[in-house]
Amino acid sequence: MQRVVLSESPVIFWFRDDLRLADNPGLAAAHATGRPLVAVYVLDEESSEARPLGGASRWWLDKSLRLLAERIAAKGGQLILRRGAAESGIAKLVKETGAGAVFWNRRYGPARQIDERIKASLKKSGLEAHSFNGALLAEPFAIKTGAGGDFKVFTPFWKALQASLVLPAAAPEPRAFVTSTSPSSEDINAWGLHPSKPDWSTGFAEMWTPGELGARKRLRDFLSGPVANYTEGRDHPSEDSTSRLSPHLHFGEISPHQVWRAARHAEEAGEAPAREIQKFLSEIAWRDFSHHLLYHDPKMGHLSWRRQFDTIEWRKGTKAELEAWKHGRTGYPIIDAGMRQLWHTGWMHNRVRMIVASFFAKDLLVHWRTGEEWFWDTLVDADEANNANGWQWTAGTGADAAPYFRVFNPILQGEKFDPEGDYVRQWVPELAQLPKKWVHKPWEAPTAALTDSGVSLGDTYPRPIVDHDFARKRALETYKAQSQEAST
User: Fold this and answer.
1) For a Cys-Cys bond, which of 63, 95, 308, 480 suits 486, CB 3.0-4.6 Å?
2) Choosing from 376, 391, 393, 438, which is the catalytic residue?
3) Cα–Cα nearest to 358, from 386, 309, 383, 325
4) Which candidate in 14, 305, 325, 368 is catalytic?
């Protein structure tokens, strides 16, 4: 770690989406100065470039910050909490502490404009500002096509990343925090991050262990078991074959470099098959690719990456349709299982996310952005880059997108990836007794099978809110018309 020599004044390390002590390059560099260290987290819900967190992410942030504060306190320091616009908040903290420098890890979405303004302001005042890569395998401006352009398709991006990636040495975790000043800190309880009246998060606590130590354990558990069947198993929502590291990565409780090193070590030690490790790491790289796209198109969260699709004649969707989708009452079991899993746990299996998003954008023909906003509010791993890229990929409006004429059939998808109906039975218990032949299409089941299974269509379980064949035809006609218009 390069030692940055400063005056006797303290230095500030500004935590953002990097809530960890180990392999945190910005924190390690601040600590390496040998100066007193002020650690701060600013809850910025005021700056226009900083998207306010959704409810599920606020739940996670509450737990992660508390655990981070405990780890810092155990090393002799204090995590200072502030709320408000980051620009004024950091400037105020610098004045309060007499800090000579501010350190942070870089952001790559619209919020980087905030960082640029703060860096310029600090330097104008004769202070130092140091930023680092603590979030990605390779930064968006550091990886280019052979012609020097920006990647628009994942496969060549993945090949280029593997060919050029040089893992840095792991940044050391501070052994102790030396402080010389104790600026005031807000009470996290006053932030109201944990839901109340009602507390809808009971299912979250059953599934998740936020925090840096929880992230490490989840990675170890994954590499010691589920990864062995990752390539095939990851598509089957009833199986525990995914890493479930996404919220830990989003909040920076673990770095992608840590994940990469651990995965390669498991492969080299013969603890996990090379094929499975390679597939898993490609998914970590997909996260990088999403941030690559957002960096080069900061409006990707609001506008279609393929701008010609912004003028599609999207339906607004009726209130009944939208509520049925949100709460898992569409009449399509695989859709309803996914939406209920999302509401209960703050997470949804990736295969099901694609099916659910396709149903929303294609079957209901409602703008993908409306669906993305619901995911933003309900996912613990809601990530500005991943969320927008995933929705646009499925809607056929994004980079590396499936052709617009690909429309997921929720019945066939359910039968293929949940053949026994185990996932549906878990999350849609009213269909638990229905034979697997009918569990993904109960409206086609004989009356006797429905009666024997305790299913009353339109009563205990809804009929489909839209006919898939009709909806597919409608979507194709709408997209085709827009595609032809764009080419003229």
Assistant:
1) 308
2) 391
3) 325
4) 368
Residue 6 has pLDDT above 50, yes or no: no
Distance CA 256, CA 136 (A): 6
Residues 98, 102, 104: CA angle, nearest 5 degrees: 155
Please identify which of the residues 49, 87, 239, 283 carries the catalytic annotation. 283
What DSSP assignment string belongs to 168-232?
Answer: PPPPPPPS----S-------GGGGT-S--SS---HHHHHH---SHHHHHHHHHHHHTTGGGGHHH
Residue at token pair 């202070």: 127
Q: Is 305 a catalytic residue?
A: no
Residue 409 falls in the annotated catalytic set: no
Provide the CA 265 distance to its chain's centre, in angstroms: 25
- Catalytic residue from among 87, 229, 350, 415: 350
Query: pLDDT of 46-83, one tens digit each?
Result: 999 999 999 999 999 999 999 999 999 999 999 999 99
User: 286 catalytic, yes or no?
Assistant: yes
Instruction: Identify any residues that bridge with 11 across adjacent strands, giving them in sequence order.
Output: 37, 101
Select 11-135's CATH number: 3.10.180.10, 3.40.50.2300, 3.40.50.620, 3.30.2310.40. Answer: 3.40.50.620
The proportion of the chain whose per-residue pLDDT surpasses 90, expressed as a percent, equals 92
Query: Could you give the CA distance from residue 12 to residue 130 in angstroms, rounded to a whole number?
Result: 10
Catalytic residue among 158, 286, 374, 443: 286
In CATH terms, is domain 307-483 a member of 1.10.287.80? no
Verify whether residue 389 is a known catalytic residue.
no
Is 374 designated active site? Answer: no
**Is pLDDT at 402 greater than 70 in this prediction?**
no
In the set 59, 60, 314, 438, the catalytic residue is 314
> What is the rounded distance in angstroms from the CA atom of residue 480 to the CA atom of residue 461?
34
Largest CA-CA distance found in the chain, in angstroms, rounded: 82
pLDDT for res 358: 97
Q: Are 411 and 440 in contact (CB under 8 A)?
A: yes
